[in-house]
Amino acid sequence: MAKTMDWFLEKYGESHQNTTNKIIHWFCVPAIMFSLFGLFYSIPFLMEKTLFANWAAVFFAITLLYYLRLSIPMFIGFIPIGLAMLFGLDSIYHAVGNSSSMLAYISLGIFVVAWIIQFIGHKIEGAKPSFLEDVQFLMIGPAWLLHFIYKKVGISY
């Protein structure tokens, strides 16, 4: 059976019922996504880094293909989100003097703190994180948040 976006969102939601855990996810999932992009951006690239010439941009393109396979509306929704993250990372990279190592330290700090808070949220929830069951749920967390926005404005996914 092929897993659909609806299946992933429903399954992900099962371990995200507690209000506190949900609020934590609204802050930490984007922070983790941003910091992960930042860690990819920090890896030396084949040419001089630019907004679209870096490993974060490559990872973003691969991520978009994953969402395209599951849901065209999710794919479209993640285009501005990913572009905003790339722009933010590019700005930080230039603000720290084009220092990949400084961007990596900042990204790693955000990554570690956000994951610690996420695990606290799951401790409060009393349920293990979904990605321990299936690693694909790491990609579903951001879509789970976006689906709430879509529901609010009446976009089906």
Summarize the structure in short.
This protein has helices spanning 5-14, 19-42, 55-70, 72-95, 100-125, 137-153.
Distance between the termini: 19 Å
Q: What is the total number of structural domains?
A: 1
Helices and strands, in N-to-C order?
HHHHHH
Percent helix: over 70%
By secondary-structure content and strand pairing, the structural class works out as mainly alpha
Radius of gyration computed on alpha carbons: 16 Å
What does this structure look like?
This protein has 157 residues and is mainly alpha-helical. It has one domain (18-153). It has helices at 5-14, 19-42, 55-70, 72-95, 100-125, 137-153. The longest helix is centred in the last third of the chain and has 26 residues, at 100-125. 29% of the residues are buried. The model has no long low-confidence stretch (mean pLDDT 96).
Which descriptors would you attach to this protein?
single chain, globular, 157 residues
Can you lay out the helices and strands and say which pair or pack?
Layout: H1 5-14, H2 19-42, H3 55-70, H4 72-95, H5 100-125, H6 137-153
Helix pairs in contact: 1-6, 2-3, 2-4, 2-5, 3-4
